[in-house]
Amino acid sequence: MTSAAPILEIDRLKTYFRSAHGPVKAVDDISLSLGLGETLGVVGESGSGKSVTALTILRLLPEASAHIEAGKIVFLGRDLVRLPKKEIQKVRGRMISMIFQEPGTSLNPVFTVAQQVGEAIKLGGENSAAKVREKTLQLLQEVGIRDPERIMGSYPHQVSGGQKQRVMIAIALSCDPKILIADEPTTALDVTVQAQILDLLRKLRDERQMSILFISHDLGVISEIADHVAVMYRGKVVETGSVLDIFRNPKHPYTKGLLACRPRLAGDTRRLLTVSDFMEVRKNGDSIEIIEKQVPATRLAELQSRGRERLLSPKGELTKLGITLPASNATFVPEDQSPILRVENLEVHFPIKKGVFRRTVGEVKAVNGVSFNVYKGQTLGLVGESGCGKTTTGRAILRLVPITSGKVEFEGKNFLGLRGEELRTARRRIQVIFQDPYSSLNPRLTVEAALTGPMKTHRVGKNPADRRDRAAATLEECGLLTEHLGRYPHEFSGGQRQRICIARALAVEPEFVICDESVSALDVSVQAQVLNLLKDLQDDRGLTYIFISHDLGVVKFMSDMMAVMNGGKIVEFGPSDEIYRNPSNDYTRNLIAAIPDDSLSSIERRQQLRQLHA
Amino acid sequence: MVSYLLRRSLIGIVTLTLITMLIYTLIRNMPGDATTLAMSEMTDRAIKQEQIERMKAAYGLNNSIPVGYSIWLKNLFQFDMGSSISKHRPVSDLIMERIGPTLLLSITSLVLTFGLSIPFGLYASARAGKGDEQVLSLGLYILYSLPSFVAALFLQYLLAVRLNLLPLFGMTSDQYLSMTPMQKTWDLFIHSVMPVACYTYGSLAYYTRFIRANMEEVVRQDYIRTALAKGVPPRRVLIHHAFRNTMIPLVTMIGLVLPSLLSGSVIIEQIFAWPGMGRLFFESIRERDYPTIMGLTLIFSALTLLGQLLSDILYAVVDPRVNYE
């Protein structure tokens, strides 16, 4: 598959973890080959074994729990698996270096940037302090840090996430390695920062003729950088090929599913395909068997027709906001209907306190004058990068953070003035689903307790037996089973847990649900299922959503109306399809341009450019 | 930082006033007072009553609690902690006399504790799961759960009574005053071996386990993986990268040790007849010696507050993420 001579060859590698229930086959008999100067993208979901493969190459897995069962990793004629510890230590950083997913936690918090980059340079054999400093400066410039002098003296917490990842890259480059292993290097970053880091990696790769093993769960990112792609599923490589082959003509059903289930910006379906539309997994004792399924034409038609059209705000309101009415198939809220939620000039400021008596000397304007209307049955998307105020807006509506000024009206009533019984009733009607299904469920409560607790608080259901029945029905509505009621959160997968969180929100029969990054922590294949579920529930129950996410593709798929936020303000508001087709604000345009583009024409163009460089 | 320290000091002064006020109220409300014990042997009721009244007047025990407290506070501002009722000497003199012996125990013990627990803790985390580590950890666990008075009695029986290697109790021998400086040092040394050992082993075990537990937490962090991926040798990763981060919780604990440096140990000083602060405190409570109790309370509370402040400052020193602006 590789055109260039291979620099790293993984041959029938098996990495197992010890566990109480016998070995866990994290990497199960995989073979991969990375060519000189080539970028190999490894894609897969969490638990597919892609990170374990990367860590196995440098033997960075904890010896107490992991071991290499079989296989070879040949690098420049040497088998890294059988190299003595002292020798593998010399390979690390000097010949093969690595960058990680979380730049925030990957740098040591107690040392300055200069110390951490300098240490790597010294390990490469440079001993003169002046030369180390000079090289540090030069590396930081190479990775695109504008004021390297200041950054050198800074501690990690004093620099931004994107800059931290640049520092990590500088450390990785310090000994001119032959191979860079990048393990989800852009996953924790905002999309515009991600685009910059990908640019940087492409530039470095071309200038230094470095090979890159690029690991990601995101096919879009892979399409931006990889020459070849390996798709991993449950510890095995299920498909390899050139990036164009994989995107143009995927062969394995899992690859097809992965490509189809992502909500694309350009997509216009009302529901998403999921991996389970393409394949069925059967357990065969110890191993699994994947059976390919044909997606029937009726299913494809259903994606277009199931559910309602976009429901846009009343024509009068749109015209007043200066928005041209879209011609496409959409329904409008009648002119005489009043909004279910009206937010007016919402401001949330956090005080900065200083001095002996903690006087307030300033404030952080997290939300700085936000206004919008949401109508019954609509979905309003709030999109923006970290720190833009989208989450604080959601929390302020729920009164989870104190509001500095502004109005929040729910069904014409001032929500902020509610007290006691009235507030309790309103709280029942507005529910929230948070981002992380792992930390937002109490680990010591059974699913039944998690669902019936809020019901009891809000006096939903006549008695415990009735509440239990309701909980069971809600679980089934969310795609789980009645028998799950007695289990604890740790017995479920991430996707199932998020379904429990959805069921918990719906158990008290709300009319309005705020989804705060509710699918961001999920794998793409699971994300598609949860997004479909949220849309089905909206249709069945007539719910109104505020859907908050950093992912423009997801927000556009879900929302009727969209608000793009930046710096605590809404910079653009309108029908979501229109904003995508015709963004009027520079910030929105940048945001859209930064999204990885995996259209075949763009991949072809990038590959041609790459040929020119080589 | 300066305004933070100022704010904390102001809060500290308020806290200190409240503590001393509370303690004064408590001891004045205890059953019995200084006269009860002093006059208990007198049999003549009339003379006894007259004596008690005279003594109460002399020591200000007739004052109401608020008046008594404000007199104490007023004298304190003139650097006068009052006179001991039972020992008939200024409280400050008593305390100065007892500080030396207590510091001899506590500082030696502190140096030993940290001098040993850091290498032990690092060794245990480097060798985690191996045989020698498990023996070390088990041994420390046993020490941690062994009460010091049991160990003290056992050591006294073994080393002093049976083997006659060390003196049974006391800080000096009877002939101490006539000794040469060399002999004096040796005499102090052999007297302090057992109390120091009893004073130290518990905290040694505690801190070793503390360091070990924190190291285990730190070595799981992403930046340790980064350091290994850079090619840093494992020993340097452990000491330079991991231990430097374990220092953060450790240093905050060191600040909290400050009050115990002066408070001494009531039990150990009692068993070994060591003339330190712990014993003074014990005696003064038994004798209802209000001025001494108040003086000691004031010192311990002030040191506790200072120790906390010191912890916070050290915290900011070792952790660059913390600042008090």
Q: How many distinct helices of chain B? A: 13
- Cα-to-Cα separation, first versus last residue of chain B: 6 Å
Secondary-structure-based class of chain A equals: alpha/beta
> What is the arithmetic mean of pLDDT of chain B?
88
In what range is the share of β-strand residues of chain B? under 5%
**Biggest sheet features of chain A:** 6 strands, mixed
State the strand order across the main sheet of chain A.
Answer: 6-7-8-3-9-10
Gyration radius of chain B, rounded: 25 Å
Q: Which fold name is given in CATH as the topology of chain B?
A: MetI-like fold
Provide the CATH superfamily of chain B.
Answer: MetI-like
Computed CA radius of gyration of chain A, to the nearest angstrom:
26 Å
Beta-strand residue fraction of chain A: 25-35%
Structural class of chain B: mainly alpha
Provide the succession of SSEs of chain B: HHHHHHHHHHHHH
Shape of chain A: globular
Q: Whole-Å distance between the termini of chain A?
A: 18 Å
- Count of DSSP E strands of chain B? 0
CATH class of chain B: Mainly Alpha
Total of domains of chain B: 1
Q: Could you describe the 3D structure shown?
A:
- The complex is a heterodimer of chains A (614) and B (325).
- Chain A is an alpha/beta fold.
- Chain A is built from 23 helices and 24 strands.
- The radius of gyration of chain A is 26 Å and the shape is globular.
- The model of chain A has no long low-confidence stretch (mean pLDDT 91).
- Chain B is an all-alpha fold.
- Chain B has one domain: MetI-like (MetI-like fold, Orthogonal Bundle), CATH 1.10.3720.10.
- In chain B, helix 5 (91-126) runs parallel beside helix 13 (290-318) and helix 6 (131-145) crosses helix 8 (181-219).
- Chain B is globular, with a radius of gyration of 25 Å.
- The termini of chain B are close together.
- The mean pLDDT of chain B is 88.
